């Protein structure tokens, strides 16, 4: 059976959920061979094996953290050459897309980004994508070279599928470009203790209607009652009420949770682009004409300062 | 020595219009008004600020696109760029990111550059991978997704706010930079700027000017194939209630029914 390379996104050995989803998709088209780079790479093997990786290729070198993107491309290319896979799958993070794109040019392959589903097809893997702020669904293929495909979080279930997951050291030689962009400082983002926005099953977002940073606790309390991540519209971010890393939309994060709750958000096309594929959508807005209501499964026309705290209270009461 | 900046700008269908695919499954660029991609205005803005700081700089804006894409160049010129290059050729229709990046790389090399600046993504394709591909093709450092950028003594530095960390980056020129919409509000063209833009040079190049063959680009040279495009079914109309004091409770009832509580 053909091998499929899966690029592993992990933090010091802790594998992030989208990578496990990639393993599910990889198994539909072949045998997953994982590539894990950097500190803790070896520690990823157990979890990857549980989810179907037949092999885990690992490499660690200071270049991976001291320089931007290119050393990782060199390593992924080395894995590609060692394995000759039928496809290469990479998580659709900002960095993942850059790594995938540069690999694709180097190996003379076409690239598909932000797939939301993947199936085997007669002419190679078929990727589903959404276009134009998710108003269209397209099916595409890579027609030249080995398909390189990046996949969005929440595109497939995480499935247990025990496999060998044998760790093998990957030999990597860095090219001249690898040290081109130096990372001179790195400030890790402080953890809020809430789920990662793109991976969360539930996202609770606030917009301009929240009317001030000091009111965002209303949104956070609702999120916490549901174990959800917190999102924000660009209007709320631009006003400085919430960090840009929480922005949902075209120039923020794209989310596809089971449940999306929008409060005080009008539903502009650029916001919809980042949340329209959510399974269930709920909105609270005092304007009955707000375009967000065109998307909702359930909408409440009302003042969020009354509705949201009542909802939070009711959820807490029901959860006991 | 003068700092030569090339800014890549894209002409895109208006996102607030009714965007559609054509029969050959390429983006329909005829029936929706086009404009300079808003995300590329940030690239033009940063180019202008970098040029202001430099002793001597020249900003060239470059686009690959149909006849109407000249509008995007005019807008960038009216914001303050010095000159423009329009790569236009019938054979470019249907190019994917590999084709477009090949054309851009050839044009950038022909124009001559110390610094290439792009937007973070185009508002129609929204792939956001062209900057990385362009850096790979040009063989220069990529300093991408910057929310802050500065050029001094042949070195570009900037801040990249990523998912897990905020990073400070540094590279020597020549280099490629992409900037996000957090990099600072783009200026509006002044009346004077709009008048001046009319006299600024716009060069037109086609594939033969770039020594490219028609089968390297366009639908034919595309390395990906779109097999189908279907309009997403409209979401089934949901329940909308007016809050009469019980809105939060009603919503909780709905969420419980859906097993979210
Ligand atoms: C290139 C580009 C990229 C963009 N990218 C993004 C992006 O990534 N994400 C994004 O979100 N936007 C993005 N935008 C901006 C987008 O166009 C909208 O401006 C933005 O989404 C509006 O945010 P909002 O809905 O919070 O604010 P508004 O549109 O002002 O809506 C606020 C809503 O709150 C309601 N409201 C007010 N008070 C209350 C109350 N007390 N109770 C209940 N409801 C209340 C109002 O009725 C209104 O509907 C982008 C724009 C451009 C041009
Ligand atoms: N046809 C084009 N002409 C000029 N620049 C482009 C073109 N397409 C994309 N770009 C540049 O590449 C960036 C990212 O584009 P993309 O990868 O298509 O999302 C844009 O912000 C532009 O700066």
UniProtKB/TrEMBL annotation, chain A:
Cofactor(s) of this protein: FAD
Domain of life: Bacteria
Statement: the UniProt record of this protein carries the keyword Secreted: no
Gene3D superfamilies from the UniProt entry: HUPs, TPP-binding domain
Keywords for the protein's UniProt record, in alphabetical order: Electron transport, FAD, Flavoprotein, Transport
Pfam families the UniProt entry points to: ETF, ETF_alpha
PROSITE patterns membership: ETF_ALPHA
All residue ranges annotated as the Electron transfer flavoprotein alpha/beta-subunit N-terminal domain in the record: 4-183
Subunit structure: Heterodimer of an alpha and a beta subunit.
Reported function: The electron transfer flavoprotein serves as a specific electron acceptor for other dehydrogenases. It transfers the electrons to the main respiratory chain via ETF-ubiquinone oxidoreductase (ETF dehydrogenase).
Membership in a protein family: Belongs to the ETF alpha-subunit/FixB family.
Name of the protein in its database record: Electron transfer flavoprotein alpha subunit
Automatic annotation (TrEMBL), chain B:
Known partners and oligomeric status: Heterodimer of an alpha and a beta subunit.
Keyword Electron transport carried by entry: yes
The organism's place on the tree of life at top rank: Bacteria
UniProt KW keywords: Electron transport, Transport
Full protein name: Electron transfer flavoprotein subunit beta
Pfam families the record matches: ETF
Protein family: Belongs to the ETF beta-subunit/FixA family.
Cofactor requirements of the protein: AMP; FAD
Protein task: The electron transfer flavoprotein serves as a specific electron acceptor for other dehydrogenases. It transfers the electrons to the main respiratory chain via ETF-ubiquinone oxidoreductase (ETF dehydrogenase).
GO molecular function: electron transfer activity
Electron transfer flavoprotein alpha/beta-subunit N-terminal domain residues: 24-214
UniProt keyword Magnesium, yes or no: no
Signal peptide, first to last residue: none
GO cellular component: cytosol
């Amino acid at each position: 059976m053909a091998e499929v390379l899966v690029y592993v996104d992990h933090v010091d050995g802790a594998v992030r959920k989208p990578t496990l989803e990639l393993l599910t998709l990889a198994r539909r088209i072949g045998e997953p061979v994982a590539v894990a780079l950097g500190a803790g790479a070896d520690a990823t093997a157990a979890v990857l094996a549980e989810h179907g990786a037949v092999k885990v290729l690992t490499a660690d070198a200071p270049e991976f953290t001291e320089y931007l993107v290119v050393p990782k491309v060199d390593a992924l290319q080395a894995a590609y050459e060692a394995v000759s896979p039928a496809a290469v799958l990479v998580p659709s993070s900002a960095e993942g897309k850059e790594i995938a794109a540069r690999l694709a040019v180097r190996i003379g392959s076409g690239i598909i980004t932000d797939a939301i589903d993947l199936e085997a097809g007669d002419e190679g893997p078929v990727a589903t994508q959404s276009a134009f702020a998710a108003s269209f669904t397209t099916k595409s293929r890579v027609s030249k070279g080995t398909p390189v495909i990046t996949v969005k979080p929440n595109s497939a279930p995480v499935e247990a599928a025990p496999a060998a997951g044998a760790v093998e050291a990957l030999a990597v030689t860095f090219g001249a470009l690898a040290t081109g962009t130096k990372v001179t400082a790195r400030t890790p983002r402080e953890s809020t203790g809430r789920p990662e926005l793109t991976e969360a099953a539930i996202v609770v977002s606030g917009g301009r209607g929240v009317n001030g940073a000091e009111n965002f606790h209303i949104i956070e309390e609702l999120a916490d009652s549901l174990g959800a991540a917190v999102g924000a519209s660009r209007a709320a971010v631009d006003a400085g009420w919430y960090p840009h890393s929480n922005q949902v939309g075209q120039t923020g994060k794209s989310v596809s949770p089971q449940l999306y709750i929008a409060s005080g958000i009008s539903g502009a096309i650029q916001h919809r682009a980042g949340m329209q594929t959510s399974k269930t959508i709920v909105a609270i807005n005092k304007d009955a004409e707000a375009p967000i209501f065109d998307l909702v499964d359930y909408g409440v026309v009302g003042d969020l300062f009354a509705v949201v705290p009542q909802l939070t209270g009711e959820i807490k009461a029901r959860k006991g | 020595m003068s700092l030569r900046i090339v800014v890549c700008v894209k002409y895109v269908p208006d996102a607030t219009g009714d965007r559609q695919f054509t029969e050959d499954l390429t983006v329909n660029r005829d029936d929706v008004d086009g404009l300079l991609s808003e995300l590329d205005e940030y690239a033009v803005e940063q180019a202008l600020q970098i040029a202001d700081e430099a002793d001597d700089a020249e900003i060239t804006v470059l686009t690959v696109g149909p006849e109407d894409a000249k509008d995007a160049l005019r807008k960038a010129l009216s914001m303050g760029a010095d000159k423009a290059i329009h790569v236009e050729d019938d054979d470019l229709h249907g190019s994917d990111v590999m084709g477009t990046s090949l054309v851009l790389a050839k044009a950038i090399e022909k124009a001559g550059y110390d610094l290439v600046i792009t937007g973070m993504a185009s508002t129609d394709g929204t792939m956001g991978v062209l900057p990385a591909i362009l850096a790979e093709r040009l063989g220069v450092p990529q300093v991408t997704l910057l929310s802050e950028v500065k050029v001094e003594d042949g070195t570009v530095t900037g801040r990249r706010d990523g998912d897990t960390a905020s990073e400070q980056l540094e590279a020597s020129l020549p280099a490629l930079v992409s900037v996000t919409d957090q990099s600072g509000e783009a200026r509006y063209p002044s009346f004077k700027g709009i008048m001046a833009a009319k006299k600024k040079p716009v060069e037109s190049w086609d594939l033969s000017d770039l020594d490219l063959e028609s089968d390297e680009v366009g639908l034919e040279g595309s390395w990906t194939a779109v097999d189908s495009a279907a309009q997403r079914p409209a979401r089934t109309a949901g329940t909308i209630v007016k809050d009469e004091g019980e809105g939060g409770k009603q919503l909780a009832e709905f969420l419980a029914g859906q097993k979210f509580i």
